[in-house]
Amino acid sequence: MSRYLVLGLTAALMVGCGSSGKKELPPAELEKFDAEVQLDRVWKRNIGVGQGELFNNLTPALDGLTLYAADAKGRVVALNREDGDEKWEVKLKAPLSGAVGAGGGLVIVGTLDGQVIALDETDGSEKWRAQASSEVLAPPQTNGDVVVVQTQDDKLVALDISSGERRWIYESSLPVLTVRGHSTPIVDVRQVFAGLASGKVVALAADTGIPLWEQRIAQPKGRSELERMVDIDGQLVLDDERLYVVSYQGNVAALDAQSGRPLWQHPASSYVGPGVGFGSVYVSEADGTVQALDAGSARELWSNESLARRQLTAPVAFSNYVAVGDFAGYLHLLAQTDGRMAGRVKVDGDGLRASPLVIGDLLFVYGNSGDLAAYKLK
């Protein structure tokens, strides 16, 4: 079997058969409810073919007033975040699998063959290309000094932001099977935080790559390699010196960002990152449950099981709600107080995989088919 297990196959295995060999239930039908809030679409733009056919998770990025997005065939666009007007567009001759990172004057993307491509934020002109060890499945990140890339073989590579030359590399042991994808590293002035396929989180010195601490979030269990998968995928969240992370078949945890000391852990299984807001941590579980935990104590505040098996995106806090997308292209708004369903809109018939993005009163949603839209609460 391939060393890397495609997430789509994993999801099919989980939905198709359980440990008892019995066929599992299909995705839950959407329940009718009295909407308390509506989403108005402010603008919509097409970004090409969207996520493509390889279960990519290409995610837009914001830097200032500009929103950057890319599709699987290599199209990269810069849009005005307020009205969606195009500032520039380039077509790279490379299939993209990790996008988009933005900052330090650059827009950065990764390819299926492990290339890292840096474009000028102002006009999309190419600044440099660098070669990583394997495909790049998460958006490269930068602190204005280095660009950090996490590759499918679980290596972290730091590149000079001006030239693309390698500064350092960090290697870790890769399990036999992994979910296809990686967590998106967090890169600040001093540290790099990354989640690994082994169920560990590491902190490295941003300038040298020297390990500062390592903490295990999930312990592999079970007899089969499938049962022992504990990947950390999706976005890590750094909030007020706390690092929030969730693993597949493991835990959601809060760590002290400086020391790596666990502040709390709570059982969870998710292949997308957590969301944080209103003093809570939100998790889209692999089985479709959305739960909210107290950010200080991990006490469960509420749980919503109405979206069972609908392959949810990572949740994001938006106004007084928690927004989450699903495989059928619906965007759901749950009340942050008790998790009740408060609103819903159909965004993309091909589904939603990328986590929604929030800035101010705007919610940006990138559909699998390539439609990128901005919404406001009505």
From TrEMBL:
PROSITE patterns, per the entry: PROKAR_LIPOPROTEIN (PS51257)
Keyword Cell wall biogenesis/degradation carried by entry: no
Chief location bin: membrane
A GO CC annotation given for this chain: cell outer membrane
Record keywords, A-Z: Cell outer membrane, Lipoprotein, Membrane, Palmitate, Signal
Protein's membrane topology: Lipid-anchor
Domain annotation Pyrrolo-quinoline quinone repeat: ranges: 73-304
Name of one Pfam family that matches: PQQ_2
Bilayer-spanning residue ranges: none
UniProt cross-references to SMART domains, sorted A to Z: PQQ
Subcellular location(s) per record: Cell outer membrane
Stored InterPro entries: BamB, PQQ_b-propeller_rpt, PQQ_rpt_dom, Quinoprotein_ADH-like_sf, WD40/YVTN_repeat-like_dom_sf
GO terms for biological process, alphabetical: Gram-negative-bacterium-type cell outer membrane assembly; protein insertion into membrane
Function summary: Part of the outer membrane protein assembly complex, which is involved in assembly and insertion of beta-barrel proteins into the outer membrane.
Family: Belongs to the BamB family.
HAMAP family (alphabetical): OM_assembly_BamB
Subunit structure: Part of the Bam complex.
Protein name: Outer membrane protein assembly factor BamB
Organism of provenance: Halopseudomonas oceani
